[in-house]
Every structure is written in C-alpha cells, then in structure tokens.
Amino acid sequence: MKKILITIFIFLTVIILVVFIWINLPFTITRYYDIKRGENIIQNVQTYKQKNGLPNNNEWKVLEMLGFENKVDYLQPDYFKINDEIYEIIYLDGLDGPFLKWNSKERVWKMGNPSKYK
Predict the structure, then answer these.
(1) CA torsion, points 106, 111, 116, 118, in degrees to nearest 10?
(2) How far is CA 91 from CA 22, 101, 106, 114, 117, in A?
C-alpha cells in the first residue's frame, strides 16, 4: 500500500512539473506551428499586396486562396486590414487575450491584443 501511494505521489508530481514547464516556455516554442503557418500566409499576402494591394477583411475567397483556413463563421488565423499598408494576422484563441499576433509595421510575432480593439 505504501509503494502504491509513493508511486501515485511521484506520478502526480511529474505531471504537475511537466505542466508547469510547458506553461512557462516561450510562445515561440509552444506556438511554433502557428508561427510557421503564419509565415507562409505572410509571404502570400506580401506577394498579393505587390500585385493587387492588400485584400479587405471581407474578401474571404481571396484570403482562403492566400492560406487562411475557413472555419465557417471566421478565418483562422484572423486578418485585419488596418490601412492600405498595414495589416495584422492574429490567432484568436479563446475569449480573452493575449493572442498571438503579427503586425506588418512591426514585423515580429508577439503576444498581445489586436490593434483594432485598442
């Protein structure tokens, strides 16, 4: 009985330790695949921008062609055209931020809220 309790204690401790480490890892590691997918979308948007200008927020067919995934009611990641030169790509996961975002003016991935809502 004592060995079973020790084994359960060690198992729970390891699980708690793994969760703690995962939560404290930098977002560049935990969101690696989102960033990688976002980089492909950014490249497609930049190419499209040179030929046609930035697409508008409601041009879903164009955005799907550029690599955004249609989730029926929204696109993943989300796209916000701020003006004719600046846009944001944001992974809106959950109800409240901070969210993973990329701004074409700053040109870096960071955690934050969309500029649209500031």
Answers:
(1) -100
(2) 19, 6, 17, 10, 14
Predicted TM-score of the model (pTM) = 0.79
The CA distance from 91 to 71, in Å, is 13
Cβ distance 35 to 100 under 8 Å?
yes
- Extract the runs of DSSP E, i.e. beta strands, from 49-114: 69-70, 75-76, 78-81, 87-91, 99-103, 109-112
CB 101 within 8 A of CB 27: no
Name the more confident of 74 and 11.
11
Rounded to 5 degrees, what are φ and ψ at 62?
-65, -45
Residues 87, 104: Cα–Cα separation, whole Å: 6
**Which tokens sit at 26?**
């930098």
